[in-house]
């Protein structure tokens, strides 16, 4: 049953985003989840949520399209009280050394991982800020431990984009702290999603203190905690959920 509060999960059709959407619905949120492609996967997440007694809706949103983002947040506020946003959209842009990466891949990665996060955060603040008639809430970015490690030889541009997300979270947290909005990051280590091939997952597990990759549900649990009242005095935090990586 919905508690009347709306959580927007951007990039909620797969991986960590899908796990977050499902857990949010279990905790009583009406979940508005987005997808850029893969409408069937998004509708599958909605069907699973509704089958378990929750409430959800899927909406197409290209985070590189400012109009799509505005429409998403207008839809969210039309459904009820926008209480929480989780930004889980992300791409790696492939794997190679920087010298071999295409400009198109670099630009797409920054556009989705960082520019999209900034635009979505702006629209969320416009609607949640108590200074603008909102009721407050939380914004949580799914970042990556790659921001601290650099991802040399694989995708340093991806790590750079996530470093930008970390800085965004810190600055925005301080900017809106007295407007009823908390802003935090979750930084996963390697996770068992389609972003990493089975071979890369195994190689990554060998570098993690706990000796395994994480599960999407473990990252989702951290995101939902940061969005909850249990984290009411937490803002500007970056929670590593990385098995010691």
Summarize the structure in short.
This protein is an alpha/beta fold. It is built from 8 helices and 7 strands; from the N terminus they run E-H-E-H-E-H-E-H-E-H-H-E-H-H-E. The chain has one domain: 3-Layer(aba) Sandwich (Rossmann fold).
Overview of the structural elements:
The chain has one domain (about 5-235): Rossmann fold (3-Layer(aba) Sandwich). The protein is globular and about 45 Å long. By secondary structure, the protein is of the alpha/beta class. The protein contains eight helices and seven strands, in the order βαβαβαβαβααβααβ. α1 packs across α8 and α3 packs parallel to α4. It has helices spanning about 15-25, 40-50, 65-80, 105-130, 145-150, 155-175, 200-205, 215-225; strands at about 5-10, 30-35, 55-60, 80-85, 135-140, 180-190, 240. The protein starts with a strand and ends with a strand. β4, α4 and β5 form a beta-alpha-beta unit.
Can you lay out the helices and strands and say which pair or pack?
Blueprint: E1 5-10, H1 15-26, E2 30-35, H2 39-51, E3 55-60, H3 66-79, E4 81-87, H4 103-128, E5 137-142, H5 146-149, H6 156-175, E6 181-188, H7 198-205, H8 216-227, E7 238-241
Helix pairs in contact: 1-2, 1-8, 3-4, 4-6
CATH topology: Rossmann fold
Mean pLDDT: 95
The low-confidence parts are none
Count of discrete domains: 1
Number of helices: 8
* Order of helical and strand elements: EHEHEHEHEHHEHHE
Give the overall form: globular
Question: Helix- and strand-based class?
Answer: alpha/beta
CATH architecture classification: 3-Layer(aba) Sandwich
Radius of gyration: 17 Å
Q: Helical proportion?
A: 40-55%
Find the CATH superfamily: NAD(P)-binding Rossmann-like Domain
Q: Between the first and last Cα atoms, what is the distance in angstroms?
A: 37 Å
Number of strands: 7
| Residues in β-strands, percent | 15-25%
Text of the CATH class: Alpha Beta
What does the largest sheet look like? 7 strands, parallel
Strand numbers in spatial order across the main sheet: 3-2-1-4-5-6-7
């Amino acid at each position: 049953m919905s508690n009347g509060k709306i959580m927007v999960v951007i990039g909620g059709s797969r991986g960590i985003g899908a796990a977050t959407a499902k857990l949010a619905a279990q905790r009583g949120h009406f979940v508005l989840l987005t997808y850029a492609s893969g409408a069937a996967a998004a509708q599958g997440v909605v069907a699973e949520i509704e089958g378990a007694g929750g409430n959800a809706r899927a909406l197409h949103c290209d985070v590189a399209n400012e109009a799509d983002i505005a429409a998403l947040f207008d839809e969210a506020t039309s459904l009820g009280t926008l209480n929480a946003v989780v930004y889980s959209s992300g791409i790696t842009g492939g794997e190679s050394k920087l010298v071999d990466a295409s400009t198109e891949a670099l630009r797409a990665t920054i556009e989705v991982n960082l520019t999209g996060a900034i635009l979505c955060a702006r629209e969320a603040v416009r609607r949640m800020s108590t200074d603008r008639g909102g009721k407050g809430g939380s914004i949580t970015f799914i970042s990556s431990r790659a921001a601290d490690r650099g991802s040399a030889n694989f995708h340093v541009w991806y790590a750079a984009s996530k470093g930008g997300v970390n800085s965004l979270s810190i600055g925005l947290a301080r900017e809106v702290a007295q407007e009823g909005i908390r802003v935090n990051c979750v930084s996963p280590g390697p996770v068992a999603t389609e972003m990493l091939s089975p071979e890369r997952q195994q190689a990554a597990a060998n570098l993690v203190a706990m000796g395994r990759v994480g599960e999407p549900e473990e990252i989702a649990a951290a995101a939902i905690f940061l969005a909850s009242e249990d984290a009411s005095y937490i803002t500007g935090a970056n929670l590593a959920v990385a098995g010691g990586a």
